[in-house]
Design brief:
There is one protein chain. The protein is of the alpha/beta class and 235 residues long. The chain has one domain (13-227): Alpha-Beta Complex (Spore Coat Polysaccharide Biosynthesis Protein SpsA, Chain A), CATH 3.90.550.10. It has nine helices and seven strands. The longest helix is centred in the first third of the chain and has 20 residues, at 35-54.
Length: 235
């Protein structure tokens, strides 16, 4: 993590967002979008996610974990720190690097709330993350299930003594529940809407994406986005 980043004030959270190499991102959209379009869309969704998170209350710092220099550049442009995830494979790589980043964070910045957040939340509203963080403060560990009901949009450590203990991947909601994390039940559609498929992207268009994503989808010519772009999601 960038050494210039300060120690978060007491009670304020540090957000961790892991993003894989752009060449491997959003493969389930390959039938509709080419490699360059998928790359541009990933970066646009990350910008909107970081913008919303930066404007949420109770967030002190944001760090993007990635081996990709283009992702790291966007993180810096959005005011986030960067933790250099070394390129490599492995079935549990995401959870491994999240644990490593959380451990590094605790050793350099002290113990405090941590949020592991998906980076593809183009409809995230600051107030949603603020509310989820406040709800998560009532439990040592908690999570927000995604819109499919099986994945995890955010994992929150509200107890300064608790470990992140991430279990992202297939059926992560069940695995986080079995690990003892409390499921948060707030009405947060933007926080729950991570984008992996064309159907997810259509849902994001209906809900209203952030400025960067709306502009990119308009450039791509994604169906239905022109009307959405005129009512760009307000930050």
């Amino acid at each position: 993590m960038d050494p210039a980043h300060r120690t978060p004030p007491a009670g304020q959270a540090h957000v961790l967002i892991a993003v894989k190499e752009l060449g491997r991102a959003k493969s389930r959209l390959a039938a509709r979008l080419g490699p360059q379009e998928r790359t541009a869309l990933v970066l646009a969704m990350l910008r909107d996610t970081l913008t919303a998170a930066a404007n949420a209350s109770g967030i002190a710092e944001l760090t993007v974990i990635t081996p990709d220099p283009s992702v790291a550049r966007v993180a810096r442009e959005c005011g986030a720190g960067h933790y250099a995830d070394p390129a490599g494979e492995g079935g549990d790589r995401l959870n491994t690097v999240l644990r490593a980043a959380a451990t590094h964070l605790r050793s350099t910045h002290g113990r405090g709330p941590i949020v592991a957040l998906q980076g593809d939340l183009p409809c995230l509203r600051p107030g949603e993350l603020t509310a989820a963080l406040a709800a998560g403060a009532r439990a040592p560990r908690s999570f927000v299930v995604d819109h499919h009901g099986t994945g995890t949009a955010a994992l929150i450590v509200g107890d300064q003594e608790a470990d992140l203990d991430p279990a992202f991947g297939p059926d992560s909601a069940r695995r986080h529940r079995l690990s003892g994390a409390a499921e948060l039940t707030g009405d947060w559609p933007g926080l729950r809407l991570d984008v992996d498929t064309a159907a997810d992207l259509d849902a994001a268009v209906m809900l209203g994406p952030g400025r960067a994503t709306a502009a990119e989808l308009d450039r791509i010519g994604w169906p239905g986005v022109a009307g959405t772009a005129r009512r760009i999601h307000r930050r």
